[in-house]
Amino acid sequence: MDAAEATQVAELAAELQRVLLVSSRILRSHTASDAVSAPQFSVLAYLQRAGESTPGALADFEHVSPPVMTRILGRLEEAGLVERAAHPGDGRQVRVTLTEEGLQVVLAGREQRDAWLRARLGEATPAQRDGLRDASTLLRQILIPPRH
C-alpha cells in the first residue's frame, strides 16, 4: 500500500468510526424511555439474551465499575425490572434475572427502535436502500469475524 492509499484508508476508517458510533448512539437512544436509560436498557437486553448473570459479569460486559453496576441494578430492582437472589450453587454469588415487567420493557424498546429504523429506511429511495444493503453486506464481511 502506497502513502496515498494509506491516507485514504485512514480517512475512511475515521469516517466509518464516526458514522458507526453516532448511528449506534442514535439507535440506543430509541430504546431508552422515561422508565429506563440507555445503559439500563442495555443491561435488561443482556439479561433477556443470557437468562441470568452476575453483577460482575454485567459490569464487565458494560465496561463499568462494579459500584456503577450496583447502582444501575439497584434502580432496575426498585423499578421491578430485575430480581437479585443468592446463587443456588454459591451463596457468596448474586444472580440477576429479568422480571416479566423487565422483559416487556426490552420487547417494547426493541420494537420502538425497530419501528424508528424501518421508518427511516422507508424514507430512503430504492437506490439508497440497495446501497445500504450492499454496504451492510460489506461491513459484515470486513468488520465482523466469522464464528467458528
In words, what does this structure look like?
With 148 residues, this protein is mostly helical. Helix content is 69%, strand content 8%. It contains six helices and three strands; from the N terminus they run H-H-E-H-H-E-E-H-H. Helix 2 packs across helix 5 and helix 3 crosses helix 4. The longest helix has 27 residues. The two termini are 30 Å apart.
Please write out the topology:
Elements: H1 3-29, H2 38-50, E1 52-53, H3 55-62, H4 66-78, E2 82-86, E3 94-98, H5 100-122, H6 126-143
Antiparallel strand pairs: 1-3, 2-3
Helix pairs in contact: 2-5, 3-4
Question: Which key terms come to mind for this protein?
Answer:
148 residues; 3 strands; globular; three-stranded antiparallel sheet; 6 helices; mainly alpha; 8% strand
Radius of gyration: 19 Å
The first-to-last residue Cα distance is 30 Å
Proportion of strand residues:
5-15%
* Shape category: globular
Number of helices: 6
Q: Care to give the gist of this entry?
A:
This protein has 148 residues and is mainly alpha-helical.
